[in-house]
Specification:
By secondary structure, this protein is of the alpha/beta class. The chain contains 14 helices and 17 strands. 40% of the residues lie in helices and 16% in strands. The two termini are 38 Å apart. Bound molecules: 4'-deoxy-4'-aminopyridoxal-5'-phosphate (PMP). 4'-deoxy-4'-aminopyridoxal-5'-phosphate binds next to α5.
């Protein structure tokens, strides 16, 4: 079987592409749109767009509060999404799913509430060198507030966590380990279950930044030993502005609230306010109900395609792209871990990544150029930035070919 036939045997990406209205357009004067920026955000299928629209057309009402039918329906949609996420991530209980805006807010919530309650001066928080800024800055803020110390496990030249160094940095002082499951700039899939086991053996809680994991392969928060797990559905064909924090119930229950306001209370008087149980305790204010409708549709969409088929499809594209890019003169791939998702970051000799991105754009090819909110990774590999192509369910080998042809055009401009 040819590689092309193999790709089509695991996922019919051309049929899948037709599910996405945004991908039917041409850009830059008639060029076929080649969307390769899925690690930043994915396009949305018709089913997700329709679910959001249907919510506004039929079900919009005061969530959790009303005594009328629309309000009951809005509540059913919202709570239905929570249950769906719980099953999708294999949480034990839907009460372990806090709905909020996404990964950044989830990590900030844990740092602010769990962190301020449990971390003292001299304690340590361990992260890795490949973290997104969302999993660095909240911990720096916590360290500033508490006098705790941030430790960073180094990564290897291939872009893998140095597990021996990681283990050596753990001690009785380590209260929190927070690590990315899949690196957005390198594509590396970390041995997160092993890292959790090491964190737990040291007596620390394990927080997993799952922003880049859930769109690509099956996630099981219990199997990987995550105490907390952060999820951004806009990278998984769902709406932006809604996301989830999974937290073990005992931990959520013992944590103080994050934002104060409506819905997160049990009783309010001017003398004293008592708080609701999780997850309501962490969900002050009117939430993104239409986002919940779209998010539930996104989970249905990826499950209908089959998460294993998605994984297999993206692995084939990753291999095809890695082989094709390796043949481009002067191109160096940054991030060559043994286990990766469909993310290829690279630098081209003598051309700034922003110029690569701009010229590719003229050919209809959308990539990300920059530090990808991982400046320490750029520093580690001594590059100012990279160009990154990242794949999703609708990408095809033709898209990879368009990228490679675009790079030939870049070469011509800079020769
Ligand atoms: N962590 C990783 C690994 C990411 O890729 C991203 C998004 N680029 C985030 C965290 C932040 O996610 P969000 O912007 O959805 O909050």
């Amino acid at each position: 079987m040819t590689a092309e036939a193999l790709v089509h045997s695991v996922l019919d990406s051309l049929a899948v592409r037709s599910d996405f209205p945004a991908l039917q357009q041409t850009v830059r004067g008639g060029k076929r749109l080649v969307y390769l920026d899925n690690a930043a955000t994915s396009q949305k299928p018709r089913a997700v767009i329709d679910a959001v629209q249907k919510f506004y057309e039929r079900d919009n009402g005061s969530v959790h509060r009303g005594v009328y039918e629309l309000s009951e329906r809005a509540t059913a949609v919202y709570e239905g999404a929570r249950k769906k996420i719980a099953r999708f991530l294999n949480a034990k209980d839907a009460r372990e799913i806090v709905l909020l805006r996404g990964t950044s807010e989830a990590i900030n919530l844990v740092a602010y509430t769990y962190g301020r309650k449990n971390v003292r001066a001299g304690d340590e928080i361990l992260i890795t060198e490949m973290e997104h800024h969302s999993n660095i800055v909240p911990w720096q803020m916590l360290c500033e507030a508490t006098g705790a110390v941030l430790k960073v496990a180094p990564i290897t030249d291939a872009g893998e966590v140095d597990l021996q160094a990681f283990e050596k940095l753990l001690s009785a002082k380590t209260k929190i380990v927070s690590a990315v499951y899949v690196s957005n700039s390198l594509g590396t899939v970390n041995p997160i279950a092993q890292m959790s086991a090491l964190a737990h053996a040291a007596g620390a809680v394990m927080i997993v930044d799952g922003a880049q994991a859930a769109p690509h392969f099956l996630v099981d928060v219990q199997a990987i030993g995550a105490d907390f797990f952060a999820f951004s559905p806009h990278k998984m064909y769902g709406p932006s502005g809604i996301g989830a924090l999974y937290g073990r119930y005992e931990l959520l229950d013992a944590m103080p609230p994050f934002l104060g306001g409506g819905h997160m209370i049990s009783n309010v008087t001017f003398a004293k306010t008592t708080y609701a149980k999780p997850p309501a305790k962490f969900e002050a204010g009117t939430p993104n109900m239409e986002g919940a409708a779209g998010l539930a549709a996104a989970i249905d969409y990826v499950q209908a395609l089959g998460i294993d088929a998605i994984d297999a499809h993206e692995q084939l594209l990753l291999k095809y792209a890695t082989d094709a890019l390796a043949k481009v003169a002067g191109l160096r791939i940054i991030g060559t871990a043994a286990r990766k998702v469909g993310v290829v970051s690279f630098v081209l000799d003598g051309v700034h990544p922003h110029d690569v991105g701009s010229i590719l754009d003229r050919h209809g090819v959308c990539v990300r150029a920059g530090h990808h909110c991982t400046q320490p990774v750029m520093e580690r590999f001594k590059v100012p930035a990279t160009t990154r192509a990242s794949f999703g369910v609708y990408n095809t080998m033709e898209d990879v070919d368009a990228l490679v042809e675009g790079l030939a055009a870049v070469r011509k401009v800079f020769s």
